[in-house]
Specification:
The protein is α/β, with parallel strands linked by helices. The protein is about 60% helix and about 10% strand. It is built from 27 helices and 14 strands. The strands form four sheets. It has a four-stranded mixed beta sheet with strand order 2-1-3-4, with helices on one face. A four-stranded antiparallel beta sheet has the order 6-7-5-8. Helix 3 runs parallel beside helix 8, helix 4 packs parallel to helix 7 and helix 15 runs parallel beside helix 17. The longest helix has about 55 residues. The protein is elongated.
Length: about 700
């Protein structure tokens, strides 16, 4: 019994298909027709009460099932009408007499108006809305993915929340794509309704006159009422389903149910309602107009709008009164600057260099000041937590302060007292990142997104929705500044890792692995050497969270070599799973490789002196490598992926140091750092240019 219940929907679909073949008794047919109407009403009500289309994600499949159910009933009612001279269905007769009211011509006209409204207005409109929604949803996917990545980078969300958001974006794309196809079914159902109506009338006349012995007038009377009733019974659910189709694909711009949105948004516009009521009242005073209806409606709108306006004014007055009544603490008197620096200890405070500091202009103070509702400090705390979880390094505290030397909309990020990044924010605007192929042009102030260098525009808030429809990714000013700050910290994290931070990390490891720390430090490895290793890993984007594995690998590697570069390479190989997770996407790793001849030339360029091994590459070879990589990096940018060069472990570190001078965002990995379960896809291969013998130049 349980198995039958679990497969009940599948059994119902099979039964609906059988309606196309098997005859149905009149009483059962009436029950099914009422169920069809009730089900359509239920679906329409659900689409108006949900706030997100994903709450009713089965709608595309349900649309197919209800359409098939309706067509099956149409075939059964046609069999009844043509086979039994109008049929014995009480529902069909009742609806036919309801619309005709004894006048066949009027009934036919009204019925065809209903059918044309369903086909031309509702169905065609729902089809167009679904098509546009599907296209814009797919076009906006890359921008939404970038927004999620930006929130993840700034610490606003964690990995789990990012996965959930990405899954929702994918579900939205699948849903609207399915809706685009499902609306074609609704359109076909409308056309089929017209065809079945024509078949019932024409076929009924032929059967009634030639085989039933009816005169033409009787046949018209009998079959027209039955046909109109049958058409109305099928078209009413079709109209409601088509309306529900258009309703559900417009839920993306709503914050709540349709009832709540309508009431809330009308209640927030009392002046417009009052003005409309006054205009209707004035129309009621014009000679020749229907005075009573206009005056009644105008008075109702005016009174309703005036009441709403009084309520809003009262709420604003209460809010102002509460703000005025709030106690204001008097700030203590501050000593003068000269008196403050008379104390020599206060002069020493000027020598302190903050690891990270952010200066900003006057207009940006409300975004930072928590007493004014600023959220930048709170967001930065979330980013610090997320970065510690991802990379294993706790970012030092950031000092925020305003600066009169900056423009009102400018901000500067400094690392150890020196400026490393600068940006400008328009507080009352939104930043719209331009897509590759925008669907339309949006007015705005052209600029460049400060964190990633993407061409953008500062747009007014009222243009936000239109920009999203055109495929732009719209970001609020606070997120722009936080994302830029987060990316600057990620880029310079290795500079923020000092001796104090290394000691704190080691002390934290002592709680769980004291034996490893005791064996490694200071017997085999000094804090200075460990700091150099950890800095090297952070600089190339490798997490140092697994400090236990790092120290264990140091112990093993330093038994054979004292070269810290080689020790670091061994550590990277030991962290293969971590590096793979860091750079791999969906089991695939897109890379650029080096030709065997290029690797040989690079190896032959390695030299050694008292400081260690270094790369002494000739300018011709360097130029060839750098030039070819520039073309490959464009491919990575088109795919919105991190550019990666995959090479052998022998030359990895030296090649990485050389290329970082030209491409700071390029990562060089070795084959030893990639796990075996990853599918490597090469986007290109750096080769040596084939050139002929050079001719001596005449001087």
């Amino acid at each position: 019994m349980k198995r039958i219940f679990q497969n009940s929907i599948a059994l119902l679909v099979v039964i609906v298909v059988l309606f196309l073949v098997l005859p149905i008794p009149p009483f059962l047919l009436d029950i099914l027709l009422i169920i069809n109407i009730s089900l359509s009403i239920l679906i329409l009500m659900i689409t108006m009460t949900i706030s997100d289309a994903q709450e009713f994600s089965i709608f595309p499949s349900l649309l197919l099932i209800t359409t098939l159910f309706r067509l099956g009933l149409n075939v059964s009612t046609t069999r009844q009408i043509l086979g039994r001279a109008g049929g014995d269905s009480m529902v069909i007769k009742a609806f036919g007499e309801l619309i005709t009211q004894g006048n066949i011509v009027l009934g036919v006209i009204i019925f065809f108006i209903i059918v044309l409204v369903q086909f031309i207005v509702i169905t065609k409109g729902a089809e167009r809305v679904s098509e546009v929604a599907a296209r814009f949803t797919l076009d906006a996917m890359p921008g939404k993915q970038m927004a999620i990545d930006a929130d993840l980078s700034s610490g606003l969300i964690d990995e789990q929340q990012a996965r959930e958001r990405r899954a929702k974006i994918q579900k939205d794309a699948d849903f609207y794509g399915a809706m685009d196809g499902a609306t074609k079914i609704v359109k076909g159902d409308s056309i089929m309704g017209l065809i079945i109506t024509a078949i019932n009338i024409i076929g009924g006349l032929i059967l009634g006159v030639t085989m039933g012995g009816m005169d033409f007038g009787t046949a018209i009377q009998t079959y027209s009422i039955a046909t109109i009733g049958d058409g109305l019974v099928s078209q009413l659910p079709a109209v409601m389903i088509s309306t529900a189709t258009g309703m559900i694909v417009t839920r993306s711009v709503s914050d709540g149910s349709l009832n709540k949105d309508v009431i809330t948004q009308f209640a927030n516009q009392p002046r417009a309602i009052t003005s409309g009521g006054v205009i209707v009242l004035l129309l009621g005073l014009v000679p020749g107009t229907p005075h009573v209806p206009l005056l009644i409606v105008g008075a109702g709108l005016s009174v309703g709008g005036w009441t709403m306006l009084r309520r809003l004014n009262r709420q604003e007055a209460e809010a102002i009164a509460e703000a005025v009544a709030a106690p204001v603490e008097e700030a203590p008197a501050q000593p003068s600057e000269a008196d403050f620096y008379k104390d020599i200890n206060n002069v020493y405070t000027l020598l302190t260099v903050d690891p990270i500091e952010m200066e900003f202009g006057y207009s940006l103070i409300p975004m930072v000041d928590e007493s004014s509702g600023g959220k930048l400090i709170g967001r930065n705390a979330l980013f610090r937590r997320q970065y510690a979880q991802d990379m294993g390094f706790v970012i030092p505290s950031i000092r925020f302060h305003d600066s009169s030397a900056l423009g009102t909309n400018q901000y500067v990020v400094k690392i150890k007292g020196e400026e490393v990044a600068r940006g400008e924010i328009l507080v009352d605007y939104y930043l719209a990142l331009e897509p590759t192929n925008p669907s339309g042009e949006i007015d705005g102030i052209e600029t460049v997104e400060p964190a990633y260098g993407i061409p953008s525009r500062w747009i007014l808030p009222e243009n936000k929705e239109m920009a999203e429809i055109y495929g732009y990714t719209v970001i609020d000013p606070l997120s722009v500044m936080q994302t830029h700050l987060s990316e600057v910290i990620r880029t310079h994290a290795h500079e923020l890792l000092g001796r104090t931070e290394v000691i704190q990390l080691v002390e934290n490891l002592k709680r769980t692995a004291p034996e490893v720390v005791e064996e490694a430090i200071p017997n085999l490895l000094s804090y200075a050497a460990l700091e150099r290793i950890l800095r090297s890993l952070l600089k190339e984007g490798v997490p140092i969270r697994d400090l236990g594995t790092i120290l264990e690998t140091c112990i093993d590697a330093m038994a054979t070599t004292k070269d810290l570069d080689m020790v670091t390479e061994n550590i990277r190989a030991a962290l293969a799973r971590t590096i793979t997770r860091r750079f791999c996407e969906h089991g695939q790793l897109r890379v650029v490789t080096l030709d065997a001849e290029v690797e040989k030339r690079v190896i032959s360029s390695l030299s050694k002196n008292e400081q260690g091994i270094y790369l002494a590459m000739g300018p011709d070879l360097m130029q060839q490598i750098v030039t070819q990589l520039a073309e490959f990096i464009k491919k990575f940018n088109d795919l919105s992926q991190t550019p990666i060069v995959l090479t052998s472990q022998v030359i990895r570190i030296y090649l990485s140091r050389m290329l970082s001078q030209f491409y700071p965002n390029l990562y060089v990995l070795s084959f030893n750092e990639i796990t075996s379960d990853v599918q490597i896809q090469s986007l290109g291969n750096v080769t040596l240019a084939q050139t002929g013998p050079r001719k001596a130049a005449a001087v």
